[in-house]
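Notes to self, Facilitated trehalose transporter Tret1-like:
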Amino acid sequence: MVRADKCDTESKPKFSIASSDSEKQDHATQKLKSADVGRKRFQFLASLCAGIIGVQSGITLTWTSPILPYLMSDASFLPELSESQISWITSLLALGAIVGAVPAGKIADRIGRKWSIILTTVPFATSWLILIFTRDVVSIYIARFVGGIGAGAACVLVPVYIGEIAQASIRGALTAFFPILLSLGIVLSFVAGAYCPYATFNSICCALLLPLVLSAPFIPESPIWLVQQGRKAQVTKVLLTLRGSKYDITDEITVLQDDVGKVMNVQGGFKDLIGTKAGRRAIIVCVGLMSFQQLCGVDAILFYTVTIFQEANSTVDPFVASIIVGLVEVFITIIVATVIDRFGRKPLLIISGATMTIDLAILGYYFKLKNEGDVSAIGWLPLTCLSAFNVFFSIGYGSVPFTVISEIFPPQTKGVASSMSIVVHWSLVFAVTKLFPSMEDGMGPAATFWTFACFTAASTVFAYFLVPETKGKTLQEIQKKLERSKSSTEYPVEPL
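result:
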């Protein structure tokens, strides 16, 4: 009994100590988990603040869809608009986007990613103020061009910034913020444009810049840019803010310094791009993907959504139908962000091209039937076709081209290739949106959509025969595919 009591007496402190140690360990674990969640939450918040400009881009891109019907109506403050004036109002944004996008990277390298993004509020605000306080067509031209400068720059700057502040484990989720918020801007444009007066709509759009301006003091600078500038103290401070005080930033700083050194030592020009067979084939893939992305008519459809539904005599109200199309865009963008890395690039492009061909062919046939007689029994078809078109564009040609382009070029020529893809993209946005009214007037809606269907059919063939599969491939493996040779290349093997 004495031994038992002694054992009990001695065991109690041991049990108590063990329990205390366990509690401390659990508490420490919880603190680490809390710190981990906290730092990732701040990365989400920083990405969200920067991505707010995506809402502005979406609104600016689709401003014409709900506004053109008003400007063309008897209630408009403008005299009757000609077809040429309508096409210029729609397409001048794309020319402004080229002006904004091409130098955006250089400006970001000079003044930083953060302030470059905040600087885009200037052309956006200027555009909205012109639209609010002026009432002539030339002012609308200027406003659309200036707004395009902001949209073009934002589409370059925000994805780069988010990619540079995010940890690898959540980079995919964070980079999805910009396209999701851009899609949300499209919906807001359709909703506000449908139910708000002209001046109120533009005032709301201008006011939506305030969240970015107010959040500016809390947005951290890109740690990669700070490393490039040699600001070591600020790099440490920013990484501790983004990652949390419990995170060991030493290794990450070393990696950032190595990466920056490599990039600065491998810059190349256009001659380097066309100097190899792989480079020339990569150019064909790049230009082809960016061309087919626009030649399917997606931006013509987005810029003229309400007008298309009005011409179709859809049984669904044109403004409501456009809002539904916008909501589908938001939903499918979120889905694509979560599944794109689970499938190969080629299958998504092929499926996208083939299904868009079917959607556009059916829509063209609907307009043919409309010209021949009553189509009220199938008045739901335009909304169905355009919603399906939006879905299948998003899962393939809406997202995959940018991914493939980022994967097929080596570091030496990636900057030149990115600039080239930007120019091709926005030039074709301009061409398609400028010519769309003339095509409808000269060829009719049926032939216009069948023309787009021919391009999407060609895009399917192009993807099948010429686009290499890049999912899960190293840069060296991709270069070998492009060379169609078993010989090795001089590019380093790095997982993509």
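- Residues 267-485 form a domain with the Growth Hormone; Chain: A; fold (CATH 1.20.1250.20).
- The chain has two domains: 38-220, 267-485.
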